[in-house]
Every structure is written in C-alpha cells, then in structure tokens.
C-alpha cells in the first residue's frame, strides 16, 4: 500500500470503530438539513403508501441514450411525474433515520439515487433536481473522482462539495472495485466478491488476500468521503449488484451500516439492505415510469 494511503487511513482510524456509529447517527437524525434548495411542502393529497420508500436508480444523462443512459428531457419528465402524482422526494439520510426509528417519513416517500459518479450528474441532473427542490444521492467510484476520462468525464471533489451544500449526498460505490477481472475461470468476475487470479504467481488469491484487498479498498473510499465531505454515515452500493455474506460482514466491521442493492422492491424500514427500481433506461417512458411506481400502491 502507498505511504499516503496508509497515512490517510491511520489518521482516520476512529472512523472504523463501530462504537462511534450511534454518535454519528445522532448527529444526522437530530440536525436540520439546511440547504439552498427550496423544498416543496409535503404532499398528502393522494396516499399511495405510508411508512415505506421507493428508491430510484439512474446512472448517466446524455442526448445519446444507451442501456443505462437517458436524456435530460426524459429525466425531467420523471421528475414531473413524481411532482404531479404527489410523491415526496426525501434525502437518503431521512430514510436511514426512519430505519433506526429516529424519524418519520412522509407518505409516498421516494429517494433518488445515481450510480458511478458521472459528471452529467452535476451538469445535467443537478440543475433539474434543484429546480424541483428534490435532493438526490450519488454512489461514486472514489478512484474516478478528479480523474481524466475525456470520453466520459466523472465528478470532481469541488463539484461534490458544492452539491453537498445544497443537500445532495455522496456515498461509496467502492474506491476501485467497480470492475471485472480474471478469476478461477475464463470469464472475468466482479472484483469485490471474488478471489482474483494473480498472473505473476500463476494462482488465485487466498481468501485472506481477497478479504484484505476488499477491506483496504472500502476503508480508503470511506476515508476520502470523510475528509472531503465530512460524511457521518457509511453506505455501500454494491458494484454490479453483486455481494455475499463475507463482504457484508467485513464491511460491517469497518462501520458500514446501509447496503444498497439492485434488488427491486419497496422499502419498509425493516432492513438495512435497500431495494431499488432501475428506472434510468431509455425504454421507460413517463407513462411506464408512473405505472412502475403505482405497482407499489397500497391495496385499497
């Protein structure tokens, strides 16, 4: 491990102490989330569901749509659907406090999330969200921030800091595990959940080597989020939606409390594994988006 990484981890060692989690949660749940965004009043005109929250997943906004890319216009249509159909968009932290029985959430609660940390979140989504008074969360691959990928730019720390001051939040999609590499077979496998093949040594990692690699990655990502954004909570969004019990157990020991999956469903506050609806796909029109939301309406 590089010396600067070790120094950073050493300096932030108290973050990894599980005993600090309650204090951090108290700070989040007892504070008022002040921001420059003018938030709409809670809408109770129509009740779709109560004491539950739908999490939405997006990735990238661009005029050229692809598998996980939609146009800014289509994204704005989704926001209009939420507003016109009486959904209440809340910060992810409010849902965390609800899970811990420290705060209630409004009816028809929705949490908007983006994955990966593309710069289009700042340039295209952020202005549209601000206009509606909607907060959102981006699960960022920390090693990509401030990096130079001209064909698909990622966020900068300066941009995340600006957005955080407006009530937006950023959590871990790992430091650098959002990739697939050679495992024990011909096909590449997700780097977080699998032992990788060591080319120079012509062997697979041992379980101890794999777990050490993953723990160091997760710790480094959290250290960066804490130093750059003063994050109080620790959330992990699983790359490719892949996870196993070993990764979960090790992440919990590092202080992670909430785990973001790709499983579809509504969330009722009874689990720290969070389901999401993947709605950032080109074929999902505004009408179909609404139908997907309404499929979770409470039974009359």
Overview of the molecule:
The protein is of the alpha/beta class. The protein contains nine helices and 15 strands. Strands 1, 4, 5, 6, 7 and 15 form a six-stranded parallel β-sheet that branches. Strands 12-13-14 form a three-stranded parallel β-sheet, with no helix packed on it. It is globular and about 65 Å long. Mean pLDDT is 91; it is low at 13-19.
Short structural summary:
The protein has 300 residues and is of the alpha/beta class. The protein has helices at 3-11, 21-30, 72-84, 92-99, 120-132, 157-164, 207-229, 245-253, 286-294, and strands at 53-58, 60-61, 69-70, 88-89, 109-116, 137-140, 169-172, 180-182, 188-190, 197-198, 203-204, 235-237, 258-260, 273-274, 277-278.
Strand content: 15-25%
DSSP, total strands: 15
Mean pLDDT: 91
Compute the CA-based radius of gyration: 19 Å
| Helical run tally | 9
Succession of helices and strands: HHEEEHEHEHEHEEEEEHEHEEEH
Biggest sheet, open or closed, and with what strands and sense? 6 strands, parallel
| Low-confidence region ranges | 13-19
How far apart lie the N and C ends? 57 Å
| Overall morphology | globular
**How much helix is in the residues?**
25-40%
Q: Helix- and strand-based class?
A: alpha/beta
């Amino acid at each position: 491990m590089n010396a600067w990484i070790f120094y950073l981890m050493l300096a932030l060692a108290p973050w990894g102490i599980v005993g600090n989690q309650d204090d951090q949660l108290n700070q989040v749940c007892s504070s008022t989330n002040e921001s420059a965004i003018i938030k709409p009043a809670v809408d109770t005109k129509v009740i779709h569901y109560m004491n539950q929250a739908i999490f939405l997943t997006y990735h990238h906004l661009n005029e050229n749509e692809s598998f996980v890319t939609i146009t800014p216009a289509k994204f704005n249509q989704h926001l209009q659907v939420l507003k016109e159909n009486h959904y209440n968009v809340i910060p992810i932290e409010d849902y965390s406090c609800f899970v811990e029985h420290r705060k209630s959430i409004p009816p028809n609660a929705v949490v908007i999330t983006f994955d990966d940390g593309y710069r289009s979140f700042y340039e295209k989504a952020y202005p549209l969200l601000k206009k509606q008074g909607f907060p959102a969360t981006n699960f960022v691959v920390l090693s990509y921030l401030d990096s130079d990928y001209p064909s698909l730019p990622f966020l900068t720390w300066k941009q995340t800091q600006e957005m955080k001051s407006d009530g937006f939040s950023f959590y871990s999609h790992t430091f650098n595990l959002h990739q697939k590499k050679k495992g024990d077979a011909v096909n590449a496998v997700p780097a977080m959940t699998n032992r990788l093949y060591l080319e120079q040594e012509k062997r697979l990692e041992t379980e101890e080597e794999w777990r050490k690699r993953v723990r160091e990655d997760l710790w480094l990502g959290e250290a960066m989020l804490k130093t750059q954004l003063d994050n109080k909570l620790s959330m992990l969004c699983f790359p490719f939606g892949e996870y196993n019990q070993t990764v979960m157990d090790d992440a919990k020991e590092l202080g992670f409390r909430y785990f973001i999956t790709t499983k579809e469903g509504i969330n009722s506050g009874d689990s720290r594994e969070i389901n999401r609806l993947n709605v950032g796909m080109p074929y999902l029109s505004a009408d179909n988006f609404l139908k997907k939301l309404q499929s979770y309406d409470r039974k009359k």
